[in-house]
Q: What sequence folds into this?
């Protein structure tokens, strides 16, 4: 151990995950925005349109994938900002758990919503 | 500009631990061509011996006089009074950010130097086939001549370009947020040491340090360190290069498994 | 009984090396310095680690001291020296005529010197004046003066010394005809205090006279400024000297990304206020261009004037004053407890420290011998802790 | 402030202080601000979508109100944030693994130009879509 700077890496994979989800987001987000707001008359889908859109199984998978990716990107970002805002080192695992839990709840809610609408 | 001496105003941050920081105004007569450090020396010699500031070489090789001048981190010894006076009136002089202030403009570099020690950077190294740092500043005809230097210089050594002034630590937004971060200079030091060392254990240890909790992944790519470095060390570029090395090593491991 | 306590005034190269030597001999040491480490003369140094070549004709005593000390420094602080050697370059017939005397002087003083073909010299130093007539290589080197002092002080601290920067000596405390300590003002706290001492070492460089004056003593130390001009890029690998007697503007020392041309010499009263004479700067640039014509094509990064502490002997011209140092035990002036060490140059600071510490130890009847020549220094980075 | 100076304690909000900083720090601060904004938007968006679970009439009446200029302006703001964050993200991803580090400034400027173009194209499509 030199001068107290350790080599432990609890959070070092997070940058790579952030980058990987970011890359995935580029096509998924483009699809989401264009499909839902640009190729649609009036810029928004009415209820029937939404239901039929989500009825397509490929679209359903892609939208759920989008939800998972965007949520993990967002949670990693929130965690990184919280760490930068001075969360002490020993509280960091708790923060990680908290954002993970929030992310899981968010995704679960989104999936429930998707299923409810397209049913 | 005339050769005459002129009176120039400065406001200098005065501070002692436990007291409120305040800006104190000084007017000082300096010669044309004087640097900010000359002005501080003059204030110290003629007006106030209690003014605390670090200084040694007065020619940008020791790194002691790094401070914020008009809100920008610079070496006071090579910052012209005339230029600083045009930017802001009065010239504002403050200590570096992100390091504890001992008094007035003096920061405690102990934590910073401990990081440099962790990087194992030795300040002498074998010379590269070009004269370091100066290379970009050389006027083009001189640069052509430089190419000749490439041959036969294996026996020469060089001091590292990094003068350990702490400017990159002061400008770094990640450093401002995370006190476990090794910071730009130390990470650049790790990159340099890995270039120079022939010891694979040393090299692996340093890469692990760079990949660790206080390492390269805490950098937020603002490139401020590279933009502000008075010695063209390019810490950001070296941090990114370390990331590339880490990623390719991990990638390689993934497939060997 | 605890070890005797010595207060060293000044954290320049002399004071730093002296503190290190005394601490190594087991004494309790406190260094007081009114500014930052090396904030006076030592910091604003030409950075030249003398091989002795510069003095091998005019001052062989200095030259011998230089080569011996350079070799010791190479052992105790190898990490913070650039040992690229130096060239003495002949540019005209008088220079060429000086060459034989120079080679002879080097041989007498034990300085390894060899003439190299001018084409080789130009290959090693592509910016050297291509009209050069001859070049002699000697083992000159470069150090960085701030780290030089920090390394001595870091080692002294590791051996128990206390270093108080931003602490100025206001008066010497005396009892009868004995100095018993110093009255200091600590600018960090704003508090004045007395530090007791068995012996006070005055290592204040060109300010040594001011300290001595506090005890109504005079020391023959003359503040003798020189001007150095630092160029905005590095134009040489090795130290470049004019192959002749030392004179103004005849040496270019590389330092990191710069080249420093030096130097001139005159005498001032107050070493705190040294105006930089513009004609000296012009002179440096002109003579620098003779050695390295490219000097005329790059900008000036900084100009520095700083007072050397020259120990005056009888002669008047400051250039002819010996570059060696003196240690004054002021008991000869009827005042006990005060020793002044002054003169010299950074290359010889370890030897100066040895002399001062010898005097201090003999006065305190401490039998410990000097071991600084064989003791590697710790990293300068451990000074701030 | 005095205590912070003596301890050298980090100020978590210093990254927002851009006085004297270069464009890289601006990009960093903007990336962070848009990131925070987009996370907030994500939850607002999910909240609004919950109206879908209440059936067609609730959703369709919401659609009617969402045509108001205020919502359009909000949408434009979100689109700007998305464009900046994702295009700057491309730069961060590339430089972050050691690619294009030397051209990071050029890269930033080019991507920002692209963001403006994409925003204008989106605006054009929006307006002609009717």
A:
């Amino acid at each position: 151990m030199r001068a107290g700077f350790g080599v432990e890496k609890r959070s070092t994979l997070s940058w790579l995950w952030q980058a990987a989800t970011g890359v995935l987001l580029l096509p998924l987000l483009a699809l989401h925005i264009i499909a839902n707001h640009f190729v649609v008359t009036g810029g928004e889908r009415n209820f029937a349109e939404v239901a039929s859109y989500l009825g397509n199984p490929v679209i359903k998978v892609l939208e759920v994938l989008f939800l998972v990716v965007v949520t993990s990107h967002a949670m990693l970002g929130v965690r990184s900002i919280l760490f930068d805002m001075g969360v002490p080192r020993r509280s960091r695992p708790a923060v990680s758990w908290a954002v993970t839990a929030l992310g899981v709840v968010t995704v679960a809610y989104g999936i429930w919503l998707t299923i409810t609408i397209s049913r | 500009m005339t050769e005459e001496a002129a009176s120039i105003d400065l406001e200098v941050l005065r501070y002692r631990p436990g007291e409120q920081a305040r800006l104190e105004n000084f007017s000082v007569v300096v010669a044309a061509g004087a640097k900010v450090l000359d002005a501080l020396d003059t204030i110290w010699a003629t007006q106030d011996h209690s003014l605390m500031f670090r200084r040694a070489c007065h020619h940008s090789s020791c790194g002691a006089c790094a401070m914020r001048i008009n809100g920008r981190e610079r070496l006071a010894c090579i910052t012209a009074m005339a230029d600083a006076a045009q930017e802001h009136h009065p010239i504002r002089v403050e200590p570096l950010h992100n390091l504890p202030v001992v008094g007035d403009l003096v920061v405690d570099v102990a934590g910073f130097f401990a990081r440099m020690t962790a990087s194992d950077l030795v300040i002498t190294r074998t010379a590269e086939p070009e004269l370091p740092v100066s290379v970009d500043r050389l006027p083009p005809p001189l640069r052509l001549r430089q190419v000749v230097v490439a041959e036969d210089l294996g026996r020469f050594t060089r001091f590292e370009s990094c003068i350990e002034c702490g400017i990159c630590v002061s400008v770094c937004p990640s450093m401002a947020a995370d006190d476990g971060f090794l910071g730009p200079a130390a990470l650049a030091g790790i990159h340099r040491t890995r270039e120079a060392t022939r010891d694979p254990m040393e090299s692996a240890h340093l890469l692990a340090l760079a990949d660790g909790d206080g390492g390269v992944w805490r950098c937020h790519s603002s490139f401020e360190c590279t933009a502000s470095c008075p010695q063209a060390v390019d810490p950001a570029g070296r941090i990114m290069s370390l990331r590339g090395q880490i990623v390719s090593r991990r990638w390689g491991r993934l497939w060997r498994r | 009984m605890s070890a005797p306590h010595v207060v060293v005034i000044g954290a320049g190269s002399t004071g730093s090396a002296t503190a290190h030597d005394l601490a190594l001999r087991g004494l309790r040491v406190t260094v007081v310095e009114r500014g930052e480490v090396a904030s006076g003369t030592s910091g604003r140094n030409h950075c030249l680690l003398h091989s002795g070549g510069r003095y091998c004709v005019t001052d062989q005593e200095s030259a011998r001291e230089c080569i011996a000390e350079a070799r010791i420094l190479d052992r105790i602080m190898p990490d913070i020296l650039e040992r690229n050697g130096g060239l003495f370059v002949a540019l005209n017939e008088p220079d060429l005529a000086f060459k034989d005397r120079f080679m002879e002087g080097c041989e007498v003083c034990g300085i390894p010197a060899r003439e190299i073909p001018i084409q080789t010299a130009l290959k090693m130093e592509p910016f050297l004046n291509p009209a050069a007539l001859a070049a002699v290589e000697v083992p000159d080197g470069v150090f960085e003066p701030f780290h030089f002092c920090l390394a001595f002080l870091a080692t002294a601290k590791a051996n128990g010394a206390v270093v108080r920067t931003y602490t100025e000596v206001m008066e010497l405390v005396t009892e009868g005809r004995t100095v018993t300590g110093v009255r200091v003002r600590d600018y960090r706290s704003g508090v004045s205090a007395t530090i007791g001492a068995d012996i006070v070492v005055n290592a204040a460089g060109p300010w040594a006279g001011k300290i001595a004056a506090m005890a109504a003593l005079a020391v023959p130390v003359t503040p003798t400024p020189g001007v150095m001009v630092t160029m905005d890029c590095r134009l040489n690998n090795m130290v470049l000297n004019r192959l002749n007697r030392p004179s103004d503007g005849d040496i270019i020392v590389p330092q990191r990304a710069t080249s420093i041309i030096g130097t001139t010499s005159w005498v001032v009263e107050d070493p705190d206020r040294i105006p930089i004479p513009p004609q000296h700067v012009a002179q440096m640039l002109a003579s620098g261009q003779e050695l390295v014509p490219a000097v005329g094509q790059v900008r000036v990064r900084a100009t520095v004037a700083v007072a050397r502490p020259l120990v005056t002997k009888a002669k008047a011209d400051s250039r002819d004053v010996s570059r060696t140092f003196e240690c004054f035990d002021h008991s000869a002036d009827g005042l006990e407890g005060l020793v002044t060490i002054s003169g010299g140059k950074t290359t010889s600071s370890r030897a100066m420290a040895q002399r001062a510490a010898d005097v201090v130890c003999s006065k305190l009847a401490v039998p410990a011998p000097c071991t600084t020549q064989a003791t590697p220094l710790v990293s300068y980075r451990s000074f701030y802790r | 402030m005095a205590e912070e100076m003596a301890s050298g304690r980090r100020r978590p909000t210093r990254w927002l202080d851009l006085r004297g900083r270069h464009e890289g720090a601006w990009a960093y601060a903007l990336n962070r601000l848009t990131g925070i904004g987009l996370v907030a938007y994500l939850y607002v968006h999910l909240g609004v979508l919950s109206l879908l679970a209440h059936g067609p009439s609730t959703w369709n009446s919401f659609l009617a109100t969402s045509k108001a200029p205020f919502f359009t302006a909000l949408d434009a703001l979100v689109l700007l944030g998305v464009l900046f964050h994702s295009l700057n993200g491309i730069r961060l991803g590339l430089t972050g693994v050691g690619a294009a580090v030397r051209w990071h400034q050029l890269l930033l400027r080019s991507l920002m130009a692209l963001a403006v173009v994409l925003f204008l194209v989106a605006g054009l499509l929006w307006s002609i879509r009717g």
Observations:
- Chain B touches chain D through 42 residues (CB under 8 Å).
